[in-house]
From TrEMBL:
One of the protein's GO biological processes: carbohydrate metabolic process
Localization annotation: Cytoplasm
Described function: Catalyzes the rate-limiting step of the non-oxidative phase in the pentose phosphate pathway. Catalyzes the reversible conversion of sedheptulose-7-phosphate and D-glyceraldehyde 3-phosphate into erythrose-4-phosphate and beta-D-fructose 6-phosphate.
Family, as annotated: Belongs to the transaldolase family. Type 1 subfamily.
Reaction(s) the record says it catalyses: D-sedoheptulose 7-phosphate + D-glyceraldehyde 3-phosphate = D-erythrose 4-phosphate + beta-D-fructose 6-phosphate
Pathway(s): Carbohydrate degradation; pentose phosphate pathway; D-glyceraldehyde 3-phosphate and beta-D-fructose 6-phosphate from D-ribose 5-phosphate and D-xylulose 5-phosphate (non-oxidative stage): step 2/3
An annotated GO cellular component: cytoplasm
Listed name of the protein: Transaldolase
Recorded superkingdom: Eukaryota
Keywords, in A-Z order: Cytoplasm, Pentose shunt, Schiff base, Transferase
Root EC class: transferase
Amino acid sequence: PPSSSAPLARAPPLLCLSLHVHAPVLLVLLSLLWTRHSKFVSRASVYKAPLFSLIMSVSPDKRRKMESALEQLKKYTVVVADTGDFNAIDEYKPQDATTNPSLILAAAKMPAYQHLVDQAIKYGIAKGGSEEEQVTNIMDKLFVSFGVEILKKIPGRVSTEVDARLSYDKDEMVARARRLIGLYEDAGISKDRVLIKLSSTWEGIQAGRELEDKYGIHCNMTLLFSFAQAVACAEAKVTLISPFVGRILDWYKENTDRKSYEPNEDPGVVSVTKIYNYYKKYGYSTVVMGASFRNTGEVKALAGCDLLTISPGLLGELSQDHDTVTPCLTPQTAKAADLDKVHLNEKDFRWQHNEDRMAVEKLSDGIRKFAADAIKLETMIKEKIQNVKNGQ
């Protein structure tokens, strides 16, 4: 103990004020008290003491433990919210956001967003034309209206999807993308803040090439399941790809005897890792945004990926998770990957993609599902058009 000349009676008030802090901080305070009241210990010597060295050696880990997995992930990867719900964006503060017909359909049913639906319907009716033309204009306006509102809440970009029913028509995809960008520009939004989502069919990839080269419109290639799709997108020099993780896992669980995987063995994680390594090894400008996650293990196994688009539910889990997150993907490890560079023309693309049964099935299934939700949204819009015309 300190000598009798060190008045311990004066120590308790300071200690009582510090009882809420972590043990390492309390130990530092004790060390400083010792230094202050001892005639024989210099103030600087506390920093050389073994106790202080021990405290300082563990405190960074303590600090990391205090950070959520989401906060840690944001140090290595741009986090994107996969939602059309503005409230989720407010809560988790992502850099970017993505939408698709399924998400817009869900959001359009919420009372909080009925004003956007009503505005889009008024816009479409005012534009005139056949019912089909009105519905198409309303759909485009609605998608853009959600995007405009989302951009008020994020510093980065929003992804808006072209109708999946156009997935095999390059010219129609280009025309629809340009119309969407025109609506954004009418709302005062620069095209640099928008990514146009296109299905990663051969036609979609070539539409992306034309939009990027000829019109300076940035594209996000979605429904990407095969390495052939990824190679073709890189060669088309599109801005971004969204390789799916969870849907690949779903397929393997449904079509093989294996029903569970560790995150690093997850087929979707393995697929995205290979694509990331290939892009970084050969210096492609296209960036990788992992998408479609089933659990936080998949997300953490892809820490270090350029971007990850994550649902609000999993963002919530990550915000409550305090396990340590470290980068699993890095440009340095990618350089060492054993991957040969390949070139794909249309014939090679179609054959190699066709050889991947999972990718063929999931691409067609994804297009059908997005198309089905687009049809549901159209049905809802048609009902509202009739209500407006009937004065309801």
